[in-house]
Amino acid sequence: MKITIVVAEFNSKITERLLEGALSELKSREVKPIVQKVPGAFELPLAASLALKAGADGVVALGCIIRGETTHYDYVCKAAQEGCLRVSLDESKPVAFGVLTTEDFEQAFERAGGRHGNVGASAAQACLAMLSLKF
Predict the structure, then answer these.
(1) What's the pLDDT score for residue 64?
(2) Which of 40, 62, 96, 102 has a 20 to 30 A CA-CA distance from 117?
(3) Domain span at residue 81?
(4) H/E element holding 62?
């Protein structure tokens, strides 16, 4: 099984924790993923598409978008989510969405290995679950 993790470098204090969670989850299931880094969450859909076209069975997309003072947050959230969904549907392969969309750093931290778990690990679990579907 070939899994690629695409991880945004923007907000790296959070995304590195998401990556650790995803890697730990996949390692516990004896899956050795390829890791590709991209500048930010906006670039995740293209990276996911390229990974699937290069032969990945599934992708775990990781990022962190924290609301700022402008509407930029809304556009990046929408583009990342809709883009990853479109790639998944177009390729008929899973693109698990492990992108945090939070109001502040604290909310992100709590969801990247804090008291609310690790969304990176959850996304890795979701990718594997979707790959195990039988039709």
Answers:
(1) 99
(2) 40
(3) 3-131
(4) strand 58-66
Q: Which pLDDT band, with edges at 50, 70 and 90, does 100 fall under?
A: very high
Q: Quick check: is 72 catalytic?
A: yes
Contacts of 53 (CB under 8 A, 6+ apart): 91
Contact in structure between 83 and 49 (CB atoms under 8 Å): no
3-state secondary structure at position 99: strand
- Rounded to the nearest 5 degrees, what angle is found at the Cα of 17, between the Cα atoms of 81 and 8? 40
CB of 65 closer than 8 Å to CB of 77 = yes
At 74 the pLDDT is 97
pTM of the shown model: 0.97
Tally of domains within the chain: 1
- Report how far residue 26's alpha carbon sits from residue 112's, in angstroms, rounded to the nearest whole number: 16
13, 29, 72, 78: the catalytic one is 72
Contacts of 70 (CB under 8 A, 6+ apart): none
